[in-house]
Write a structure and sequence with these properties.
The chain has 173 residues and is α/β, with parallel strands linked by helices. The protein contains five helices and nine strands; from the N terminus they run βαβββββαβαβαβα.
Length: 173
């Protein structure tokens, strides 16, 4: 099983590195999602999940009034649940699962947490970004004895994707 985790401070480029790894792999089928910022007039308003088959769902927005909240963002747990249920379901035809990110917002979703734990228990290949700090599922994934943790910095973020893609190629072939 391959469990490769990218971590680092906010804004260091974890999502960019993860997407570069996926582009370099050319693995099919690949299943999961990455996260994009939602911006208006250059200001971040929230986040959306984008699946590798093209679904886009806003999961957090500054204008969302209801709890739960992470920082200034109201989190749409139902949206995270729905995406997790669909794209993180075990499927023997999937070569690699990709999750961006195992973070505070995503961990509010019981479906997300259960899906990640199921993939780990089934020893499915998983490439994920994970919050630098956190308890619960965040800590659990980082402590997994199979995990290889890449701490991204501004100095190594440009060369790390090639190394990670090389490790995954070995696992997936």
């Amino acid at each position: 099983m391959s469990l490769l985790l990218l971590t680092g401070p906010p804004g260091v480029g974890k999502t960019t590195a993860l997407r570069r790894v996926c582009d370099a792999l050319e693995v099919a089928p690949l299943r999961g999602f990455y996260t994009e910022e939602v911006r208006a007039a250059g200001v971040r308003q929230g986040f959306r999940l984008v699946t590798f088959d093209g679904e886009r769902r806003v999961i957090a927005d500054v204008r969302r009034p209801a709890p739960p909240r992470v920082g200034k963002y109201g989190v749409d747990v139902a949206a995270i649940d729905a995406v997790s249920r669909r794209v993180l379901a075990p499927d023997p035809a999937v070569a690699l699962y990709v999750v961006d990110e195992i973070g505070k917002m995503e961990c509010l979703s019981p479906e997300f947490a259960a899906a990640v734990r199921t993939l780990l228990a089934l020893e499915r290949p998983l490439l994920a970004t994970v919050a630098l700090r956190g308890e619960g599922l965040i800590g659990e994934v980082k402590r997994d004895p199979r995990a290889r943790l890449f701490n991204l910095t501004r100095d190594n973020r440009d060369r790390a994707p090639a190394e990670i893609a090389g490790l995954l190629r070995e696992t997936l072939t």
